[in-house]
Design a protein that fits this description.
By secondary structure, this protein is α+β, with helices and mostly antiparallel strands. The protein folds into 3 domains: about 1-125, Rossmann fold (3-Layer(aba) Sandwich), CATH 3.40.50; about 130-180, no CATH class; about 180-225, no CATH class. It is about 40% helix and about 10% strand. It has a 3-stranded antiparallel β-sheet with strand order 3-4-5, covered by helices on one side. The chain has a two-stranded parallel sheet with strand order 1-2. This is Type IV secretion system protein VirB4. InterPro entries: P-loop_NTPase (IPR027417), P-loop_TraG (IPR043964), T4SS_component (IPR051162).
Length: about 230
Amino acid sequence: SLKSRLSAFQRGKQFGWVFDNEKDILDFPDNTHLFGIDGTEFLDDKDVSAILCYFILWRVMNLADGRRLVIDIDEAWKWLENDVVAQEVKNKFKTIRKQNGILRLGTQSVEDFLKLPIAKTLIEQSATKIFLANPQAQEDDYVKGLNLSVEEYEVIRDFDPTKRQFLIKRQDEQVICTLDLRSLGNHNLRILSTGSKDIEIIDSIFQQDIPLEVKIRQLQTYYKEEA
């Protein structure tokens, strides 16, 4: 029963640590316009990932109240492995445009995404699709799974990843674009390509009891020296 399933999340029980705050302090203040939630620590934990994904996505989806909103779920197949979570996202996918919002689902693995029971519905409901370079692209995944033409598949497969090209498809229209970020400067590009070797430095900066503006300046200095 639902009661017995939820009892494991009571304080003192096996998963009591998951929702152990006296109050829900997950906050989205109006004066902050960009939020990021990293699911690395729990998405592979089969015991708690479903309920955590549901709670987080429920809180985020409730932001769709008419304000301009973009919800970006990267590696979406991992978030949608649970059927209940997937159904909620599927429902929101159909209505969010009426609420002045956009829901973008991203994946590095088309094969994993296509295994989702709701994959076909999500593909059909997606008005615009963006395809990055993928030299390992499989024809069946792109042509049969994503409804691309053979020519479109070959373009994506043959893109040179170093040229930052991508294909945008909307209904029967397609365009090839290039993402040129040279104007950002090398140190800002380094921020966008942060790797595991940078994590320790970043953590040490943000653990300091100093104003956020100072932390950002320290971070920029670090990347300028590394660029």
